[in-house]
Amino acid sequence: MVVYPKLLASAYATIRVLPPFNQRRWHLVSSDIQPHSKGFLSKIFAIYNSHFDRVLFLDADNVPVRDPSYLFSSTEFTTNGAVFWSDFWHPRRTLFNLHGRSMLWELLDMPFVDMFEQESGQLLIDRTRHAAPLELVYFYAFHQPNFLEKLELVYGDKDLFRLAWLKLNAAFHMILAVPAMAGRFENSSFCGMTMVQHDAKGEVLFLHRNQHKLTGERQEEVRKESTAEPEAALGAIQSDEYPDPVIWTHLLSFRKEADVKFYSIDAYRATPDFPQWQPCYGKRYVEKQKLFELHEFANTSFAGIESDIRHFAFEAARLRHSREIEWIGAHPSNTTEGLNFTYD
């Protein structure tokens, strides 16, 4: 996990919902970090320089609904040494031009691969088994001049991992279950604000809150931009003290029996039901969809998790403002497995 100030509340909340790690937190605070290893590339820098042999990397706004440590002993990981997750996008519907006509394949000197793009909000990698593809990922990210970036052939880091593994014919498992979406359902209009990822059995595991991040604070400047009333910008006034709005009322999933070649996600704005500034993903009018199904979040086994993370984000904001945050622990020099936390 790479954390910068804006994501402290999200990171704090994610860490607090991981009970096995509550007493084992390692962090690295360092000014000796390459100037260009910021933004998306900081993820690659952190994994490449991790002291762990086996790493589960999570984006700071990515919340597991249960202890994810079982992934380390899963057949998919022990067999392949790497587990990746797919994005919404694929060559038939892509926001990033990753299709058969892209110059990317010629530049990387490899044939076009018809598969889902990668979503790197979670990565499970055995660094000892996959030292070579990690070196190639690092090269793709930091070699100058960086034509991948200059020609906008990829977006950030998200596909660099699978491209490096494919280039070297290294083993990896891509989770077969396509992403679902968590969001709000208002006036027959759905707005997905969180990417939902599954484990190998198709069970929900990660809620990547990438379109509406936790802050633990009231964002009056954001509310003023909304065309809706300030308090109703993303639903009704909350009955608790936590300032972050509830955005997980429904889960939109692709039907398990449906053919994934028909999986297609829309990116849209859903005014006037949702603020103009709020990006939405999924299908706005669910009743017209035969391939997707809508479920109430309250009926899931992890229904209470949003209350928990909103509470922890609020707690993080109060701690930060009172200057009482104290990160404790030492970065281990031994080889083990776990979550890698890097704070900058």
UniProtKB/TrEMBL annotation:
Q: Name one GO cellular component term.
A: Golgi membrane
Q: Which Gene3D superfamilies match?
A: Spore Coat Polysaccharide Biosynthesis Protein SpsA, Chain A (3.90.550.10)
Q: Which UniProt keywords apply?
A: Golgi apparatus, Membrane, Signal-anchor, Transferase, Transmembrane, Transmembrane helix
Q: Which family does it belong to?
A: Belongs to the MNN1/MNT family.
- Give its localization: Endomembrane system; Golgi apparatus membrane; Membrane
Entry superkingdom: Eukaryota
Instruction: Kindly provide the name given to this protein in its UniProt entry.
Output: Nucleotide-diphospho-sugar transferase domain-containing protein
Answer whether the UniProt record assigns the keyword Aminoacyl-tRNA synthetase to this protein: no
Chief location of this protein?
membrane
